[in-house]
Design brief:
The structure is a homodimer.
Chain A lengths: L17 H13 L4 E8 L9 E3 L2 H10 L4 H8 L6 H8 L6 E4 L4 E3 L6 E6 H6 L1 H25 L3 E4 L7 H15 L3 E2 L2 H6 L10 H6 L3 H11 L3 E4 L5 H14 L5 E6 L4 H14 L6 E4 L5 H9 L6 E4 L1 H4 L9 E8 L2 E2 L14 E7 L5 E8 L7 E2 L2 E5 L2 E2 L7 H14 L15 E3 L1 H13 L7
Parallel strand pairs in A: 6-7, 6-11, 8-9, 9-10, 10-11, 15-19
Antiparallel strand pairs in A: 1-5, 1-12, 2-4, 3-5, 3-17, 12-13, 14-15, 14-16, 17-18
Helix pairs in contact in A: 2-6, 3-4, 6-7, 6-13, 7-15, 10-11, 11-12
Enzyme class (chains A, B): ligase
EC number (chains A, B): 6.3.4.21
Protein name (chains A, B): Nicotinate phosphoribosyltransferase
Chain lengths: ~450, ~450
């Protein structure tokens, strides 16, 4: 019986779409081994999003430098009867020898801006297509969703309860880092948190209440096991449960309850009612946590309506970024053998050349606009694409800790024009295209005999 | 530097939400170790879906029987300063000792029907919550989406191009099996296909065309490397590319081209135009494959409009089931110590007890309705919940091969009332609740002093 459960590191080289392997065998057979640049970008923002937070690029860049094809992987490819022995030997000796430039994890990015560029002999760069896209797509989608929740909560904590809805265990573990970078305040996910050196948070489930005969017995037992814990009060009737809890606290002053959690019903009404009951009984220190089908819109409504909620737990809408689970990331050839290349399919045009993004600030430090240029150009502002792999060597300094990436990301988001932090589409952040980049596109078009695309 | 890339099998026990561990430590401390039943089900169908295909339950059941906590995992939990040594010892000795009943992979399921039920001492069953939900959620969501594409294509092939949009590498590999079970005809995903013993399919990317100076040189080079291959013809101008290709085929009769792929533009118009051009030149044998932002609705439109397309490649909409990436799966305690248990939160009621689903057929073999009963009841039809783990032993016979699961699934979907295979919500499949199950609910409610919930 094959072990189907988990992807092993030595199998990561097989995480390709078949056409990558057939194309690079063709390059190998044709002796096409000039240096190519592939650019990872998106053409438009998903509906309702004003920015995306780039995430995952450091992570996958490090993996790329470790990518190898072992005997077992080569045997599997040999069994497909598509590949020549000489090409399989080339794969067996594969080591990524190129460069990767990327923006920092947690950087807000906009359409046409490369999140990452790979420069290497064309077969090497082509081989990475699906792996790089899969990694950056997932973490960027999840970090961007988390950033919206952070914006909506306006300083209240938001905790990830999404593991059960996340798509598989790799997403569940990597997502925790992306959420942290974007500013969530915690996660219930144990493996995700220990993997990234973060702390896990937790309350209790309805099953604990159900398993005990009486609800208040269950709540008190749990509070005695875990002083300062959060008690789930909605298994049968929220207000009745809170009233009984207050009675039991009056009988036993040693009880230490940190918070109650509301998980269903009219959360605004219940939060106001429970806050009133708790305050009246002198329990101003007991916090109220809300969960149960929340998303950024319902959180914003609760915040705007001044529901006395101290923190939010979000599961389903976060775990797969349910309103927008995909980003149309593209990984496109933009230069080959020193010459600009582009694509001209309807609605899928691309900009040629190796690029740089300059982010220009106002005098107060807020972001004014970006300048998209060729790599060797100068423009006002800070250059966002920095080398993270050089001649096949991962630059360890490029791998920020989760806390450092989070700090940088929250700072960046705070510098965006404020309308961009809205939950609905407001304005387009201005990204200029440099004259030289325009000229480069026209040159590539004219060489292909194509009409200018402006 | 920790290896953050991949989840190791020995870490799977940590794939829990923290509250599972704190709750089971409380059970352990309280000596609550009676047998519990947890039921995995959903309360309502996602918008637009008339059924879900249950998938992943066999897979996770096998993992559950292999779940262990090693020294390294125990050390990680110890470092959280939440757990007593005696409880950590209990975890170190953990072996799942219970039973799991599940429906077959690829079975159409409806609201309130258990996809799976776990019966074990309460701590064991509680520990599995997030792991079981994560596995079954992902594969059920992906298989259900794939089933819609199969329904829309009406016999034409549908190939998975979704790896780059799938949420992480675990989803990318497991999804391939779920797609196959649901009836997709292929995948471009190499690791996913070799893992499950399936074959991968592939065409070529725009980059191959772009890297070569002239488009037709690129297409011919690729066709010579891979006789019978599929050529991508939309990099610059689809119709012009096909015309040039026909000219080149006229010059070199040895060229063997299996298909052309259209990846952008008006696919119906282009398919009809290209089909006409190819037929006129005597190339009736060259097939036309379409891709580029397709989903079940656009596929149905192309099929209804008789676009001469022989197969579809689907990426983004499939990879994360983008219109409906989440299912509100619940894992709820329904029995403890032989007594029925339920939840009564607004909108989140549950049915108590250990259950069975009977699927009743019409005389012609089509499905008439389902009967949801207590486990030990009899009702007309076939009992869908079958044991896949007994006293901790995985029943290998319960793990169908991908091909066997696919055959059973396609057969089941074909027996559904035809309206249920529509892409929009049509009718509700009838699921009766047995009198004894009703009575069991009323008993549980009255014991809790709750009003009847009917």
């Amino acid at each position: 019986m094959p072990q189907e459960a988990l992807v092993q590191e030595e199998d990561l080289g097989l995480l390709v779409d078949l056409y990558e392997l057939t194309m690079i065998q063709a390059y190998w057979a044709e002796g096409m081994n000039e240096r190519a640049t592939f650019s990872l970008f998106f053409r438009s923002l998903p509906q309702g999003r004003n920015y995306m937070l780039a995430c995952g690029q450091q992570h996958v860049a490090r993996l790329v430098t470790q990518l190898r094809f072992g005997e077992r992987q080569i045997d599997k490819l040999r069994s497909l009867n598509l590949f020549e022995e000489g090409f399989l030997e080339w794969l067996a000796g594969f080591r990524f020898s190129g460069d990767i430039h990327a923006v920092q994890e947690g950087t807000p990015v906009f359409p046409q801006e490369p999140l990452l560029e790979v420069e290497a002999p064309i077969a090497e760069a082509q081989l990475l297509e699906s792996l790089v896209m899969n990694y950056v797509h997932l973490e960027t989608v999840l970090a961007s969703k988390a950033s919206r929740l952070v914006n909506a909560a306006q300083g209240r904590g938001v905790v990830d309860f999404g593991m059960r809805r996340m798509h598989g265990i790799d997403a569940a573990v990597r997502g925790v880092r992306a959420y942290h970078v974007a500013g969530l305040t915690g996660t219930s996910n144990v493996l995700g948190s220990v993997t990234h050196g973060l702390s896990a948070q937790g309350t209790m489930a309805h099953s604990y209440v159900q398993a005990h005969g009486k609800e208040d017995d269950a709540l008190l037992a749990f509070a005695r096991h875990y002083p300062g814990t959060t008690l789930l009060v909605d298994t049968y009737d929220t207000v009745a449960a809170v009233k009984r809890l207050i009675e039991r606290m009056a009988e036993d002053s040693s009880l230490d309850i940190g918070a109650i959690r509301l998980d269903s019903g009219d959360l605004e009404y219940l939060a106001k009612t429970c806050r009133h009951l708790l305050d009246e009984a002198g329990h101003q220190d007991i916090k109220i946590i809300a969960s149960g089908g929340l998303n950024e819109h319902s959180i914003r409504e609760l915040v705007v309506n001044e529901a006395p909620i101290d923190g939010f737990g979000v599961g389903t809408s976060l775990g797969a970024s349910s309103d927008s689970p995909c980003l149309e990331l593209a990984y496109k050839l933009t230069e080959y053998a020193g010459e600009p290349r582009l694509k001209h399919s309807p609605g899928k045009h691309s900009l040629p050349g190796r690029k740089q993004i300059y982010r220009e600030q106002e005098a107060d430090g807020s972001y004014r606009c970006d300048h998209l240029t060729l790599r060797d150009e100068q423009a006002p502002g800070t250059a966002l694409l920095q080398p993270i792999v050089l001649q096949g060597d991962f630059q360890e300094a490029a791998m920020a800790s989760p806390d450092a990436a989070r700090e940088a990301s929250l700072d960046s988001v705070s510098r965006l024009p404020p309308e961009l932090r809205s939950l609905v589409e407001t304005r387009t952040y201005h990204v200029t295209i440099s004259d030289r980049l325009h000229a480069c596109r026209r040159l590539a078009e004219s060489r292909l005999g194509l009409p200018p695309d402006d």
